[in-house]
Amino acid sequence: MNETRNLDLLPEVLPSDPLHWADAWIKEATTAQVQRNPNAMTLVTVGPDARPSARMVLCKQFVPDPGYLVFYTNYKSRKAADIASNNHVAALFHWDALGRQIRIEGVTVRSPDDESDEYFASRDWGSQLGAWGSDQSAPIESRQALLRQIQQRARSLGLKPGSRSDQLLDENRPLIKRPPHWGGYRLWITAIELWIEGPDRVHDRAVWTREIVRENARGSEDGFSVTPWTGKRLQP
Ligand SMILES: Cc1cc2nc3c(=O)[nH]c(=O)nc-3n(C[C@H](O)[C@H](O)[C@H](O)COP(=O)(O)O)c2cc1C
Question: Which domains does the chain have, with CATH numbers?
Fold first, then answer.
């Protein structure tokens, strides 16, 4: 991207590729340590009953070219069930300390297995065990029952569990493989709005949209190709 980037205001002539701006904002929020999880975003899905539901997830990768972000979760969770029936989602980043918001809309597909494997292998093993131990979004009768379930599953993975996860540490522990029901989603971005807080509520806003064309041509990631962005400034 060649446009000069003034991070405090969007330029008069809107940048042709907003994802590089978004990427810079996420990186800046991370470097500036403005909050504990600067990569946290609200993810909104819509269930089969057409009702929306929101929760936080962590954006683990932001890929401006060709234009998707990645989050990880349980493929049997409520959000995954929603996505299975409707893969259109929305996501929202907000950094209060920076006065910035990013709104995202797009379509979601599962990450390639090898990518999820690689990320899972990089996680600390308490988190790895957590992915096996919890049937995310399913009810359970008590917290005690949850802890028992986690310990039972740890044992079945060949681990020697204690009563707390930090007592499960064992240098000779076996490698934990990624559970088949846990992995990444790529959110292919079709609309993005960059918002900057301004004085007297005169905020700076612009939205960019593009189409994702499904094509089966080899070489295009996830079978998608994208049209160029169209951007317009919005009144605050
Ligand atoms: C800051 C923060 C980050 C979170 N990150 C994730 C995440 O990356 N993946 C995930 O599955 N849940 C994450 N959670 C938990 C979710 O918000 C949610 O409780 C869980 O995924 C179950 O959602 P569901 O029942 O709608 O599927 C996070 C929660 C918070 C507060």
Answer: 18-118+181-234 (2.30.110.10), 121-168 (no CATH)
How many helices and strands, by DSSP H and E, does the chain display? Answer: 5, 10
Q: Using the mean position of ligand 1's atoms as its centre, give its distance from the Cα of residue 198 in Å.
A: 31
201 is catalytic: yes
Nearest-atom number in ligand 1 for the CA of 37 is 1
pLDDT in tens, 105-158: 999 999 999 999 999 999 988 899 999 999 999 999 999 999 999 999 988 988
How far apart, in Å, are the Cα atoms of 88 and each of 79, 186, 198?
Answer: 11, 12, 31
Please list every protein residue whose CB sits less than 6 Å from any atom of ligand 1.
37, 40, 53, 55-58, 71-74, 77-79, 136-137
Q: What is the pLDDT of residues 19-41, one digit of tens each?
A: 999 999 999 999 998 899 999 99
For 208, the token pair is 């960019």
Enter the pTM of the model: 0.93
Ligand 1 center from residue 76 Cα (angstroms): 13
Q: What share of the chain is helix, strand, coil (3-state, %, to 5)?
A: 30, 35, 40
**Spacing, Cα 235 to ligand 1 middle (Å):** 32
Q: Which of 36, 143, 164, 201 is catalytic?
A: 201
